[in-house]
């Protein structure tokens, strides 16, 4: 990437900045919410209280020798960052470390009765069971008679805007959802995306999922449509191997979402059947690669994952966190070309993301200027703008 400008890695060390507020305010709020959501015992409460103190005032501590993922974390930067303030290491790293430590505190890694109990499950379930989910599923019936292209477009936008508000936002920013959404796409490469997934295509779609619940459901609907209409012969859904960033989807969340679809009526149930049978015959597979929860950009991905992405017709990254990891969690000038920062990626790649952090690339100078004129820098983080970006040789702009 010879022409790519230098862009500093984002840290959380600047009071008043968005990353600082996540470390100093959002993480403590998440701990308190988790403490109230499950009937934890005294040891778990103590461990969570200690984590609250450590993550706001303390330093990164080494993992015990018997931690199951100690070697991974050492390789992912723990050796270098142990002993440093959470605010002075890359923000992406600090956030990941927070969720790793939170799982420890509630007994996720076991042994013991709480092993494998997702501390965020009550929030994810509440969202999946909410009446809004029923409304969204019922609305699918209205798509039935539309031409395929229009249905495909509607489902793509459902998946895109499903990322608008994740549970981490809602747990710590009451009222954020009430803000008027400005449903403006700041970049739209959807034509390029569709050219990679033509009708009667024989390709493999990889979708790297983000949140469970009301984001995962539309992601699954999009996959069902692409398989049923022959725009993809196979699909692979990457989820997280353990609970992460409050709402990120795990295999258990995929199972919950599929049950929700199967229990629905009308078109939603039909999509559910398509997915169920695609899983049964291997056209759809679910993957939970350890790197999906790594505190690193995808530029550092391991060889096996690189080979998997290289073999795909298109890899779609959903959501803000995946975007940060795809382009690198850096303060890029917003006009830095998306294709340039994803030049390392081994195949065609797309991002479907609502903007919820400072990182952004691929904007035109005019779009950036219009956003700044209307909102100063708030458009970067308030979750009311979205983008569809694609990098491939076939790109049509
Ligand atoms: O669910 P998403 O779209 O990945 O968004 C999660 C987002 O939450 C934050 O980490 C802040 O906690 C964002 O900056 C982050 O990228």
Automatic annotation (TrEMBL):
Keyword Metal-binding annotated: yes
GO MF annotations, alphabetized: metal ion binding; phosphatase activity
Damage-control phosphatase ARMT1-like metal-binding domain ranges (all copies): 23-368
SUPFAM superfamilies: AF1104-like
Cofactor(s) needed: Mn(2+)
Biological processes, Gene Ontology terms: DNA damage response
Reaction catalyzed: beta-D-fructose 6-phosphate = dihydroxyacetone + D-glyceraldehyde 3-phosphate; beta-D-fructose 1-phosphate + H2O = D-fructose + phosphate
Keywords from the UniProt entry: Hydrolase, Manganese, Metal-binding
Keyword Magnesium appears in the UniProt entry: no
Family (UniProt): Belongs to the damage-control phosphatase family. Sugar phosphate phosphatase III subfamily.
PANTHER family: DAMAGE-CONTROL PHOSPHATASE ARMT1
Name under which the protein is recorded: DUF89 family protein
Taxonomic placement: Bacteria, Bacillati, Actinomycetota, Actinomycetes, Kitasatosporales
């Amino acid at each position: 990437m010879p022409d790519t400008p230098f862009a500093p890695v984002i840290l959380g060390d600047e009071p008043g900045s968005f990353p600082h507020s996540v470390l100093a305010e959002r993480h403590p709020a998440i701990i308190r919410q988790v403490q109230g959501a499950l009937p934890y015992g005294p040891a778990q409460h103590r461990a969570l209280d200690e984590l609250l103190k450590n993550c706001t005032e303390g330093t990164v501590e080494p993992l015990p020798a018997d931690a199951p993922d100690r070697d991974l974390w050492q390789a992912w930067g723990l050796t270098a960052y142990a002993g440093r303030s959470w605010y002075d290491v890359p923000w992406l790293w600090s956030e990941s470390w927070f969720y790793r430590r939170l799982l420890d505190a509630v007994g996720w890694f076991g042994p013991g009765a709480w092993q494998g109990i997702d501390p965020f499950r009550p929030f994810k379930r509440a969202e999946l069971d909410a009446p809004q989910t029923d409304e969204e599923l019922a609305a699918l019936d209205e798509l039935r008679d539309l031409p395929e292209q229009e249905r495909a477009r509607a489902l793509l936008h459902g998946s895109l805007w499903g990322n608008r508000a994740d549970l981490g936002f809602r747990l710590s920013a009451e009222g954020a959802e009430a803000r008027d959404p400005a449903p403006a796409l700041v970049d739209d490469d959807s034509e390029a995306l569709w050219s990679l997934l033509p009708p009667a295509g024989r390709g493999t779609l990889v979708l790297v999922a983000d949140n469970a619940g009301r984001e995962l459901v539309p992601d699954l609907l999009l996959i069902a449509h692409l398989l049923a209409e022959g725009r993809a012969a196979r699909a692979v859904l990457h989820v997280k191997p353990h609970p992460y960033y409050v709402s990120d989807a795990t295999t258990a969340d995929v199972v919950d979402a599929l049950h929700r679809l199967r229990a629905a009526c009308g078109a939603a149930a039909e999509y559910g059947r398509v997915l169920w049978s695609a899983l049964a015959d291997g056209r759809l597979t679910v993957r939970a690669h350890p790197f999906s929860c790594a505190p690193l950009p995808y530029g550092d991905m391991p060889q096996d994952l690189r080979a998997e992405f290289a073999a795909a017709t298109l890899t779609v990254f959903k959501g803000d966190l995946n975007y940060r990891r795809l382009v690198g969690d850096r303060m890029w000038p917003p006009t830095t070309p998306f294709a340039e920062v994803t030049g390392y990626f081994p195949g065609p790649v797309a991002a479907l993301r609502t903007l919820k952090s400072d990182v952004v690339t691929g904007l035109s100078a005019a779009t950036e200027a219009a956003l700044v004129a209307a909102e100063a820098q708030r458009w970067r983080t308030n979750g009311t703008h979205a983008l569809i970006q694609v990098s491939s040789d076939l790109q049509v702009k």
